[in-house]
Amino acid sequence: MCDIGCSNGDFLFYLSDVFPHAKLYGIDILPSLLEKTRQDFKAHNKPCPTLWEGDIQSGLNLPKERFDMVFLNGVIGIFDDLHKPLEHFANLINPKGVGYIWGCFNPYPIDVFIKGRVCGSSHLESGWNLHSKQSVLEICDGLGLKGVFYDDFDIGIDLPQSEDYLRTWTFRLEGGKRAIINGLSLVHNFSLLELTYRI
Predict the structure, then answer these.
(1) Are the C-beta atoms of residues 68 and 22 closer than 8 Å to each other?
(2) CA-to-CA distance for 140 and 132, rounded, in angstroms?
């Protein structure tokens, strides 16, 4: 199992509990996050996953191996152009394997590109692009992948608003269901995309 954009290793840590005998791999562009992953696994006396410093967008330093399960969690919104990241993602999946992409996708046939800036800052933050499901599926189809979206996510807990307005929080809709929002005034439509090679 390989987690792309593994950050500080939280999902890898979860996988190590659920699948204790699985061979785990992680890829991230930031060495400091990979080091945090190593430290956390060591602190809990767990074998550390194999980690690569690599870039899913450019393909730089990605492993030659292919994996039975490949994950890309919360990363898809960073990219303006999905063709290369999805091509590199596809190249990491075994022909009989499966890939999972978790993120916010636009259910409408419009690709939305979003950047935000905290008042008083000159730095534009990215990471909240909403690629349409239609565009994503068309790209994946061109790569020989069959894609299926699962849209029944319900967070199930209340998240309080923090002082960091880029962090998400929940609010209640009519009928009691929770919606997820952040300081960009974006309501998040989370979906899980499952990808397999067409046979």
Answers:
(1) no
(2) 12
129-170 pLDDT tens trace: 999 999 999 999 999 999 999 987 889 899 999 999 888 999
Report the alpha-carbon distance of residue 11 to residue 32 in Å, rounded: 17
Euclidean distance between CA atoms 8 and 15, whole angstroms: 14
- Which residue segments constitute the domains of the chain, with CATH numbers given? 2-160+193-197 (3.40.50.150)
Residue 20 pLDDT greater than 80, yes or no: yes
Alpha helices in 44-166 (DSSP H): 83-91, 133-142
Note the helical H segments in the chain.
Answer: 10-18, 31-43, 83-91, 133-142
Is the whole-model pTM more than 0.70?
yes
Collapsed DSSP state (helix, strand, coil) of residue 190: strand
Instruction: Return the closest-CA partner of residue 128 out of 162, 80, 83, 84.
Output: 80
Length of the chain: 199
Cβ contact 143:87 at 8 Å? yes
> What sections of 21-119 are H helices per DSSP?
31-43, 83-91
Residue 5 has pLDDT above 90, yes or no: yes
